[in-house]
Amino acid sequence: MTNEDYLYKEESYSIIGILFEVHKQLGKGFSEIVYKDAIEYELNNRNILFEREKEFAVKYKDIVLKHKFYADFVIDDKIILEVKTVECFNASHYNQCLNYLKISGHQLAILANFNLISLEYKRIIDTKKQFANLR
Question: Between helices 9-26 and 32-45, what is the axis angle to 10°?
């Protein structure tokens, strides 16, 4: 992927900037809800469109399953932001984001961890959708 193909480049930079600002102000040690509240404040302050705790239904064959997924944030109706306060990311965190991408139809998720001395984040791209759109 070239620099020109960087998925949602400007939006990603804005979101990551917000994450760094929140971490700079709060540091580590708070619960997820505190960081989510601060992120919501920053998104509102910058007039960035978002939905918090967006609900996604899971379709299975010809039904919708009774349990739903709730993404922490969906920004600009295209980027999922998932907030964690964990010792380190693990496969379940990545899988959670991939599942959100799959059921939402979005291509990009940003996974953020505030429980370290410096912010940890990962961009997770649904490569199947990414390559399908490049054709």
Answer: 130
